[in-house]
Amino acid sequence: MRRRERLTGFFIIFILLAFSAYSNSMYVGGNITNLSDQSMVQSRNIEENRGEDSSEQSTVLDGKYSEDSDSLSSQMEIDNSANRDKAPQVKEEPPKSLTEQIKVHTVKSGETLWDIAHHYSLNIDSLIGANNISNMNSIRPGQEFKILPVRGILYRVSPGESLSDISDKFDISAETIKKDNNIADGSKLRVDQNIILRDVKPELTYQDRLDEKLMFPINTRITSPYGPRWGRMHYGVDFAAPMGSPIRAASSGRVVFSGWSGGYGKVVIIEHRKGLRTLYAHNSQLLVSERQTVDKGQVIARSGNTGNSTGPHLHFEVQINGRPENPLDYLHR
């Protein structure tokens, strides 16, 4: 009996000790030591570590992507710059000069000079200053007139003339002449170059033309008339003249040039009045000097073959308001 009671007591004590040991195993220093919980914690830690690694890897990848993007953008900018450099550069064309803007009007049946001038907002002076008009009251259908883009005159540079000479003569600034005619360097103005002088009026009026009568500078036959010749314009008439023949002034006036001028050879230019000049070219000898006054019929030169010439002859021009016109419209025997 006593023995059974002892065994029962020992068993109860064992159960109590076992339960106490199990309870202590649940918490050690406040930390969970249960195996299944430990597995859960370890799994959580692994996931957190994976998250940190993923975040770090993402940061690295993002940085690399950013670097690659910057590099790609830089490369594209370089390529675009290279393409821009290789692209053909379009040059801006300079504005057209006034002479390049000249139009040609063909006269219609019933039209008058005043009709044409009004149509283009010009005045009669501008038509006279650009065209050879021998009779204002008798223009014919099909006749062509140059139409200037502005009011003024069409002027051809004569031998011995400079930009400052023309500027002073017509009281127009040299800068205006250069700008209107696209002249970069005034010192390179060419003989026979056509320019437009803005707002300048003809010095020789239509009535002056009718009153003006010039004598023939030499009494020989005409070998080449005024007009188109050999694919270009011949601005005077050529007279046959054996070497050394006397050349006479077509009217009284003042010598404005006497000397050598390129294709003209030895040349004399006389101003008879404002807006009216005569030119005598290819001479062998010049007998007058600049600023000298001459009389009508006075011998001013001896014929020759100087300059661009195929044989001894006289090239004779009549210049009206700085522009050559047909001499036969002004010569009278």
Automatic annotation (TrEMBL):
Pfam family, one: LysM
Amino acid composition bias (Polar residues), ranges on this chain: 71-81
Domain of life: Bacteria
Stretches for region Disordered: 43-98
Domain LysM: start-end pairs: 103-147, 153-197
SUPFAM superfamilies named among the record's database cross-references: Duplicated hybrid motif, LysM domain
Descriptive protein name: Peptidase M23
